[in-house]
Structures are given as structure tokens and as C-alpha cells.
Amino acid sequence: MKRLLFLALGSTLLACGGAAVRVADESLVDTLRHRITNVENAVSETREIINRSRGAAHLPELYMRLAELLSEEARYHYMVAYERSGRQSRVLDVPAAKLLKEEALGTYRLIARRFPGNPLVPQAIFNAGQEQRELGDYDGMRETYDQLVADHPQSALRLEALLIIGDYWFDRNDISQAATTYQRILASAESPVHPLARFKLAWCKINTEDCRDALRLLEQVMQTSGPGHTRVVRDQRLDLRREALVDSVYCFSQEREADKAVDYYRRMAPNRAAFVAALERLVRRYSVIGDPLGVRLAVRELLVLAPEDESRIDDARMLHDAVTRTGEFEHVALDVELILRALRARLRDPALAGAERRNLESEIERLARDLATKADVRARDRNEPELAREVATAYRIYLDLLPGSRHRADIEENQAGALVASSGFFDAGRLYERMAKRAQKAGDRSKNLFNAIAAYQKVLISEQGAPVFQRVRANAGLRRSAQSYLRQGTGGADELPRVKFIIAQTLYEQGNYSDAIDRFVALATEHPSAPEARAGAELALDAYRALEDYEGLARAGRRFLAIAGLLDETTRGQITQLVNQAESQSLERTTVAAGGESQGGVERLRALAQRHAGSSLGEQALLAAFATAQADGNFAQMVQLGQEMADRYPQSEAAGEVLASLGRAAAARYDLDRAVQYYERAARAAPGERGERLRAAADIRIALGDARGAAATLRSAIGATTDASQRRELVTKLAELLDAAGDARAAMDALRSAGADDPDALGHIGVLLARGGNTGEAENVLGQATGRIGEATPTGAARIRYGLAELALVTLRSPFEVVPGDEVGAVQQISDNVSSIQDAYLQAARAGDATYAIAALSRISMAYELGARQIEGIHPPEGVTGALAQRFQQVLRRKADEMRSASREALEACAQKSREVGSLTAAARACFAGTPPDQDPSAPEPLRPRRAVRDTRQVGEAREAVVHQSGAASLSRLGTLLLEAGDPHAARYVLARAMEEGGGNEVKNLLGVASAEAGDLDAAFKYFREAAAAGSNVAQANLAGLYKRVGLNSLADAERRRAGNVQAPPVALLAEARGGGGASPPPRSPR
Amino acid sequence: MLLVAVAVAVGCGGGVPVIRSTDPRLPSEGRRRLAEAEDDLAVSLGQLRARREEQEDIVATISRFEDLDDLWEREGQSLMQSRRSLLEARLILADKLIEEAEARAAVDEARLRLARAEVLLRYALAAPDLEPVRAEIASLVRERDRRVAASERAKTELGRATDRLWRDYATAASRGGRRANALWLE
Predict the structure, then answer these.
(1) Residue B184 lies in a domain
(2) Count: domains in chain B
(3) A18 burial via Cβ count (<10 Å: 0-12, 13-18, 19+)
(4) CB–CB contact B148 A604 (8 Å)
(5) What pTM, to 2 d.p., does this model score?
(6) Residue among B90, B145, B173 whose CB faces A599 most closely
(7) Which of A150, A329, A418, A849 is most buried per CB count within 10 Å?
(8) What range does the domain containing B80 cover?
(9) What is the pLDDT of residues A671-698, one digit of tens each?
(10) What confidence tens digit (pLDDT) does each residue in A157-186 have?
């Protein structure tokens, strides 16, 4: 309890022997003595005035003044004594002062007694009470003030008096009486006394444990202001609001929650100093009652606001204790700072030194460290990032304020861990870097560098996205740390791949794909079994995809696939698929680009093929290049690329088609030798299409007169063909070819090996046998064929009939066996035989094949000739001589002549037929010559052997022209050039196409020339006749030349006369037609 | 030189009066024709810029490589040379691709001029001579094709250099030891 101190008059000033005595301020003493003198004078004067003013109205004032002067003098005497005593005690025995005060008291009583109605009376009574109090007469004082209150209820001093009365009772521990007295004050109208009354009443409440009311009253004091809130007590100015604030702590702690205290007092405090005072009180109060929460909150605030002095160290201790006991670390950073700042403030005291200083440092450091580490453990145990962030800050503050701490290394490590836990990766990275620099051991350096790398990486791959500048710095930090780590070379074996992966991944995340790819590949190469290597491989491929470098992707993918131990089965499958897709993409893009680039496009594809030679991509690229060249119509390039395709990728499924395309392209250019070559190579490369390609090759060989080559190709084609009708066709062609080449045996073998059981084949075999003189076998075969003649083609039927006729003709070759005496019958028989044979041939002639018709007609003439000879061979019967014999001979001669006449008629009919159909076969030639053919004229005549010539530039250009401007004109030009160059076989192939394209007489004439020079006289004859009939005198002249060539000179002359004057380039005329004759070899005689 | 031609011609029209796709005198078909040609040129120029940036990246990589000369020497001459060859091949390819892109831009610029001329002629707004532009385009196309071929050759060389590097790298890695760190320190 607060007690007012009073002067204890009568106490003795003790002089302390040996203790320092304050020397009285003599100047002040002199001043006081001077004042005493003045006051004494004033007292004397006042007394005199009083003496002179008896009965005056102002006498009370004079007495009042006298009393005040006496009191003042007393005070001066006291002050002199106080100064003289060295101000060692206020309890002094000063008789002079006592006397003067008693005199003053008497004077005040006199005023009250002698002037009861005077307005000064209340003041006089009040002052009397003051004097009594100062004289130690408290009871007298109370009585005086009771009197004042009772007698002067309206006086302003009444409330002051009540206040003093209340204090009187309070000091005597009569709380009830004191409270009643204070209540009387508060019941009056508000006055400057009320705040103090409230304050004192609040203390009464406190003493009676009524904290609620006490708090209410104190709040009233705190929340108002006015002149009554400041009181001077013993020369000290007291701020009631401050006092109420501080004194309310007790009741606040009883009535309100501790967590509201700081805010409450902050709000209620009139100023900072008051707030600090309240906080100090709060801290002590909560300490006493054992409320760590209250302590924590208050002491924290106190440490923030209070001036830095010694007591702050205790506050720091209390803060640590409170925080530890409450276990609430959410402000641990601030707490650590406050604790350490308190220490630093204390350490600034130079008086603190030696062991005491060291101990204090150690103690407070430990407290700060303990708080931080406890909070750290809490944050980790509960996985609270926010708390971790707070802890990291606490550690930082610790290190800032205690830079020389011997626990620095551990604290830094903890701080780094807290930064990581709170996602402060950038700061963690920098910290780890600093720790690495300071680390003494290589292992620690590596560990810290590794941690730095991991932390920086987190910054860069954070989903939230760090600010740009921080990312740049993190990137630089990562690179720096990684390089230091690698340079050191002491990292763990499992760490190395991770570090490298992070480096590469960082580059990848930055979009620096090329550099990232290099590193991912290096990682896979160096550490194939590390999981990071596999992940890196996938990222490398992804980087290639981002660069749209599909070629590179395919190449890298294959590289990865080849690294043993790098990929598991699943990833291997995925990458294989990626590689395939990339190759397709690469090819597709290049092909699309090539489409718009003409020449450049093919080169692009070719280059792609070269780069990936031996792979499926290389194959596809080459194929695409070929297709592009084909689309461009660039044959030379097609050849190059096709050749390359076949050489590099002989097993390719497309090789066959490429070669076939080349064959078609060559054929389209009428580059027939190449076409054959390519078709045959295509057949070898692709067994599935073999038959078709060999057929195409064979047809060209046949057209070019290459019988041997065609035969071989046909045999291969037959073997490759499964379709029965196609096989039959090929076999027929082969047989015809071999027959024309004079190899009947081979022809028959070909027909038989193909299982010839159709009438056409049997007919052909039969004719071959008959021609070869195997009459018995021929008869057998032809007999089989005859039974199915209805199924035969016209040619086949003609053959069968012809064959049978040939067999019959044989009978006419040997002399007729005349039965003696039946010579006449013999002649008849011979006639009948010839007639039958004629019928047989006529059947052949009517079968529908022109060649066999002409041959048959020519053989009829031969039959008549042979018949005539047989007749001529009959001798007269035995015993017939002389004229009878002559007569007999005449009859026989006449019969023979008739036969010969019939023969000539047959020849004529044959010649007519030949002219009609335009044929110059061996049979036709015999007929034209008027000589019956002794041997079978139906055998096909082979073409002349071909001599291939080299292409000239003109021929090459003409081929190009045919490709780009196909038509009769371009074909005609090419055909002419080939003819001029000496390749009639190729020429007639081309000129035949020209005819199909609408070529006119000129072309027909040239076609005739080419056919004649190739050895196909029959075709030449036909073309010359048609052209001549259409009005071409050049063809007429050539017809004459042709006749001449085959020895039909009279016919030749007749045609020559008809031709007249002929103007034509040499190439358009046969040598015989140019007038030179003899240049061409004589034709083969028909067999 | 080609790029100078592009730069000059884009602004000056190269002898053909300049008409743009936004010209109100043109019907929609004519505007579309010009717009397509303008777009093609814009794409080409964009591609050219991209190629230049790629080249700068490669130059930076080479610079880092050269800075670590001593480290690479420790890895072995063969590996160092392979790495250098690869970087050189990349740089050469980058140069070729720039040249190719320049050629493409020149072709597209000339085609734009041709499109302008054709449009002017078609809608009787002017009577420019088309043949010189067509001849120029043909020449530029040939040049472009030549540069395309050069790019492809450079790609082939790059492929070889890449294979060589990783072959040497694998050899070095199989020997263990320093584990080819120089690359990681670039």
C-alpha cells in the first residue's frame, strides 16, 4: 500500500561516522535565511497591520495572511535544517518550525472562531488541518476535516477534506470507512478530486478483493483526463492515469485473459512510459501467479519497448522460460532477437567484465539457441513450413547478432534445413554455398555443395515460379556449385549422376536444348545404370522434339538403345516407337519440303538417306527421293537413285518396285535395253511380281530379236507364273521363238514340259514332228489334236490340218508303187491322193490363219508337182512297147501336165492370197517366184541378230521429248534416229508405237524399212504395200527394193516403174530402193 | 548480299509499284493473293531471325569450350578434338542454315513483287513487266536450291561429328577416372 510519508518531527538527524556527509549548500541556506528574514519582516508588518486594523472588514484576510506567513517561515526553518543536515532525512526536529506551525494553526483557528461566516473560514480550517497533519496530529487533523465537511458542505475544499479523511482511514486499514469516505466524494458533482477519489476507492476495492469494481474504477481514471489527473505528492508530480494503469494489473490478471493484456494496456496507456511501466508490472504479476502465457506476451512487448537496461536481462530469461513452458514458438525469431539484443545492450556496459561477462554471454546465448532449436524441432516434427520459415529467420538473427558464436556451423546447418523446410530454397542454396566455402573437410564441402545444387534446382523448377531475377541468380548459383562440386571430385558415387542430371535439366528448363542434349547423352554414356540417366535420355529426346529435329531424335534414340544397361524393357519399347515415329516425321517433313523445292528437294532427301545409310530411315528417304525424281520426270536421277536403292538395300521390299518403275520409265523412253535390264532385276528382287516382270522383259527381247535372251527369260517367266492361261501363253511364245530359231526339239520340249495337252500345243508339236520327219509320232500327236480341234484357236486348227496334210504329202515323195497291170489305176490313185492332199491343205487354208493359208496353198502346188512326178515315174506296163508305150507315155505326160498346170494355179492362188493379205513369208515368196516350196514353208523366220548402238545426245533428247511430249511426231523422230543409228529392231518398236499414235504414211514407210532391216520381211511387205496403196511413192520404191532383196526382180521392176521419181532421205529408203542394191544380205530361203 | 537485296526490295518494291494487301482498290481475291505472299515473306524473315539466334547460342557454347581448354586437354586430345569438331560442325550448319534462310527470304520477297505486279496488271492499276521478275525468281530459286544442298551436306557432316564425339566419349567413360568432366564444366 501506498502510504504518504510525513515529516516525523522530533527525529534526530544522525551523523554517520565515517559515512560521507553532504555539505550543505550554503548559498541555498543563505537564500533561505534571507527569505526567513523577509518573512519575519512580513510577519511583523502583518501583525502591525492587524493591530491597526481592528474591526476592519479585511481583518480575516490579514489573519489568513499572517497564518500563511508563519507557515511559510516554518517551512523555511525546516528547509534550512534539512539543508544543514545534508538532506539525509526528512524526519527532523526543528523547534522553530514547530512553534511557528503551532502559531499558524492557532491563527487559522482564530479565523474560524472569530469570523465564522467569513468565506475564508473553510480555507482556514483546511489549512489548519494541514498544519496538524504536518505536526503529526493525525487525529486532530481528521477532526478538523470532519468539521470542515460538516460545517461547510458547499465548500470546494470539502472534497479535498474528504479525500484526506479517506486517506486517514485507509492508512489505519479501515478500508470500509475509507471507502465510504471516498464514495461521498464520488457522490458529489464531478470535480478535480474525483479521479484521485476513484483511484483510492479502487484501492479499497482491491483490498476487499472486489477486482471487478476496482478495475472499473481504475478504467474510469485511465479513460478520462483533466486537471484532476495530475497530483503533486511530496514535490513529485503523479499522473493518476499512469498510476491507475499500473495498479490495475493485479485486478486485470484476476479478471481478464492474459492474452488480452498487452493490447489492453497498449490501448489504455496514456503514453509509452506508462505502457512500459504497466508491462513491467504485468510481467511480475504473471510470474508470481505462474501464468507463462501472460509472462511471455508481456515480457516480449516489454523487451521491444523498454529502454535497454539491466532489467532487460531478467526479462530475457523470463521470455525464454515463458516461451519454453507455453511451447508456442510462432514468434521465435522475434524472441531470439529480443533476447540477444538484451544481451548486447548489457554487454555495452564496460563495468561488466571478466568471468561475469563471459558467464552472462554464455547463458543468454544458450537461451537464444535453445529457443531456436526447440522451435526447429517442433517445425520438423509437425512439418510446418510457416514455423520453419520463422525458425530460419531466428537462426539468421542469431548469427547476425552473434557472429563469433562457436556454434556457428551447427546453427548454419540448422538454418539451411529450416530454409529448405520452408521452401526458401534460394536462400538455402546461398547458405549452403557459403558453408561449403568455409568447410575444412572435403567431405563437408562436397555435401554442402550437393545440398546447394539441390536447393538451387528447386528454385528453378518450383511450380510457383520464383521472380525472374532470383531465377537468374539461382541458375548462376547452381552452375557455380555444380562446377565446384565436380572440380572437387569427392562426391558420393550416387550423387554424381544426380548432380549431372540437375545441370542438364536446368539447361533444359531454360530452353537451352542443344547444350542440355549434350549433357543428357554424356550422362547416359557415363552412368548408364543410374536412374537419372534413363530420365535424362527421355528428356534429351523431348528436347529434340522441342527443336523439331526429328533426325537428331532418331539418331539419339538409336544411340540410347545401343547403350547396355541404360533402358528397361518398357522404356526401350517406348523409345523404339519414338524413333520410328521420328523417322517417319523426319521423312515426311523432308518430303513435304522437297515437294516445293524441285531439284533441291531431291538433294535434301538424298542427303537424308546418306546420313542414315543402312537404316530404315535411310531406305525410306532414298525411296522418297526416287519418288520425287519420278514425279519430276527426271530419268537420269531416277536411275542414279534406283541404282543406289538396289545396291544399298537389296533386301528392301521396295527394291523390286523401284526397279520395275525404272523399267517402266525406261520403256516409256523407249530405252529398251535398260528396260529389259531393270525388269529382270526387278523380277530377281521381288519374287512376288516375278512372272509379270519377266513377261515384260521377254516381250521386249522378242521385239528386239534377242531370241536366246527371250527364251531364257520366257523359261524363267513360265516357272514364276502360276496362272494356267498365262503359262500357256508364255509356253506358246517360247515354242514359237524356238521354232523360229530352228530348234524344233527345244520347242517341243518346251511345249511338253508345260504339260501341253491342249489342241494348239499338240498341233504345234505335230507340225514340228512332221517337219522333222517323225511321221509316226506326228500322226499320233496330230490324231490326238484332231479329236479336240473344236477347242483350238484358228492358228491351232490351221496347224493341225496343215500337219495332217504334211503327213499326207510325204506319201507323194516316194515313187508310187504301181501294181503291175494296173498302171491306169495307179494314175487314178495318184490323182485321188493329190486331190485328198489338196483337200487337207484347203481345210488348213480355211482354218482362219493367213500364214498357214498361204503356206497351205503353196504346198498344194507342191502336192500337184509331186503328183506329176509320181505319174511321170510310172512305166508302161510290162510287155507294152513301141507306139503303145509311146501312147501310154503321152497319156502320162498329159496327166502330169495337168497336174503341173494345177500346181501353177495353186501358186497363182497363193500369190494372190499373199498380195491380198500383204504377206511376204517364205511361202508367199515361193508363190511369187512361181516355184512350189519343196520344204515346209510354214516355219517362222527368225529376225536378224540385233546390234545395239550407244545413245547419242540427239537420241537422248529425242527420248526426253517422247516422255514430255508423247505423240506420233516425237516417236517418229526417235524411231528415225534409231534407224539412222543402225538399230532397226528398236526403231521398229518405236515406229510401231508411232503408228498407234496416228502416224501417217511416212511413219508406215519407215516402219517398213525398219522391219525389213530387222529381218521381218513379211511385216515390211505389209507396211510398204499399205503405204504405197495410200499414195506413198517412197513406199512404192521400197516395195520394189524389197522384191529385189528377195529375188523377185520382175515384181521389183514393175513396182519401180510405178514408183517413178522418188525423193526421200536415205533413212527412208531401202538400200535396194536407193539404187545401190546389194547392201542388204539376201534373204534366207524358206525351209 | 542476298539479305541486302531483300532489305532494299521490301522497302522499295524493286521496280514494281508497291501495293499492299490492304489496298481498298483491290477485290478480295487480289488482296488474298498479296496477303499470302506477304505472309510467306514474314515467315521467312522470322525463320531467318531464329536461325541467327541459334547461331549465337552455338557461339556462346564454343566460347565456353575454349575457356576450358586446359581441362579438355586433360580429358585427352582425341576427345577434345571430337568436341571441337562437333561444335565447329554445328556452327557451320548454323551458318548454312542462315544462308539458306536468306535465300528463302529473297525468293519470297521476289515472289511478293511478282504477286504485286500480277495483281496490278490484272486489275489494270499498272502495267509492269513480269518477265524480269520471273527471271529473277528462277535465278533465286536456283541459288536457294544450291544452299539447300549445302545445308544438307553440313547436316551430314554434323551427324558424323556427333557420332564420332559420342564414340570417343564412350571410350573415355569406359576408362573411368575423371569421367569426362570437362563437358560438365562448360
Answers:
(1) no
(2) 1
(3) exposed
(4) yes
(5) 0.58
(6) B145
(7) A418
(8) 28-176
(9) 899 999 999 998 888 878 888 889 999 9
(10) 899 899 999 999 998 999 999 999 999 999
